[in-house]
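pasting for the record
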Amino acid sequence: MAHPSPRPPRICPACDGFASVAVTLGSRDDRGHLRTITAHCTACQGTGIAPIRRSREGARA
């Protein structure tokens, strides 16, 4: 008997699953390395998975 497979996680529509990126600041430090900062998606808080929306029944009154 086949077991049901778990549902795949929903990918965040804001970042398409690329939740963290490294952005170069355009300059180099004293050693010649590029200066970078890390930016996280604000919609999924850097997880890449969309939060589950719960529908409220009876909200349309």
